[in-house]
Amino acid sequence: MNRSIINSHIINNIRATIPFFRGLKFEPIVELDNLSVVAYEMLSLCDANIDVEESFNSLDMNRKRELFNHQLNLTNVINDKRVFINLPVSEILRSDFILEIKRTNIAPAALSIELQNLPDIYQFSDIELNEFKYQVKKLQALGVELWLDDLDEELIEYFFHLDVVFYGGKIDKITFWSLRKNKKLLNFLIMRCNLICDKVLIEGIESDSDLKLIRATKADYAQGFYWPATCCLDDSADCFFDEAA
């Protein structure tokens, strides 16, 4: 990726909104057929002494939206690879959401939106579910890839009956690690994901044996500490490869 465009000014602008924000990390998304990097997931780095998940959950929605908008603007200048950005699933219901994406002049084909907090969809009303499906179709028509995060059997079943097909779905690292010694069950889960997603990505790849295992499955993409991430911190204008990130 073109690391030179991610400088301390950009990082500090985000930190002005989110005080515990420390920088950005770009984790490679790897295609399993040829092991090429096809995209990066943009993640936030935070102060070491805080609980990251708890701190982000405690942010009000306006600050979460500001972070998302900063990430959208960055996506507009990182033009050598597709970029994954995380988004709470409920945010897709906003009437101005698609307009917000259009305002940034992003090439939609450069953007993948990873929908998180998926169990929240169980609380959607019938009207909200219809709006959700409508928004999904509009985003897909623009060329935006939509991914489902942390899929499990219950979510797969729910989305299957919702009759919506997404570009991709992710199997989280804890699920993968629990199935390392059960390739048959791992392949079954991948097959189930394919009921609602065209592509499947497995997280948590950390070793040669992990990589060998998933390359023998029906998965399409992989992500994990096996591939070094690119980190950009607020006290430096330069990016560097963080082997441990």
Folded structure, characterized:
The chain has a single domain (3-242), classed as TIM Barrel. The model is unreliable at 236-245 (pLDDT under 50). An eight-stranded mixed barrel has the order 1-2-3-4-5-6-7-8. It is an alpha/beta fold. α1 (8-17) runs antiparallel to α3. It has helices at 8-17, 52-58, 61-75, 97-103, 126-142, 153-162, 173-178, 183-193, 208-215, and strands spanning 21-31, 37-46, 82-88, 111-116, 145-148, 166-171, 197-203, 221-223, 229-233, 239-242. The two termini are 17 Å apart. α5 (126-142) links the parallel β4 (111-116) and β5 (145-148).
Protein topology:
Elements: H1 8-17, E1 21-31, E2 37-46, H2 52-58, H3 61-75, E3 82-88, H4 97-103, E4 111-116, H5 126-142, E5 145-148, H6 153-162, E6 166-171, H7 173-178, H8 183-193, E7 197-203, H9 208-215, E8 221-223, E9 229-233, E10 239-242
Parallel strand pairs: 2-3, 3-4, 4-5, 5-6, 6-7, 7-8
Antiparallel strand pairs: 1-2, 1-8, 1-9, 9-10
Helix pairs in contact: 1-3
| Total number of helices | 9
Shape descriptor: globular
Q: How many extended strands?
A: 10
Task: Tell me the distance between the termini.
Answer: 17 Å
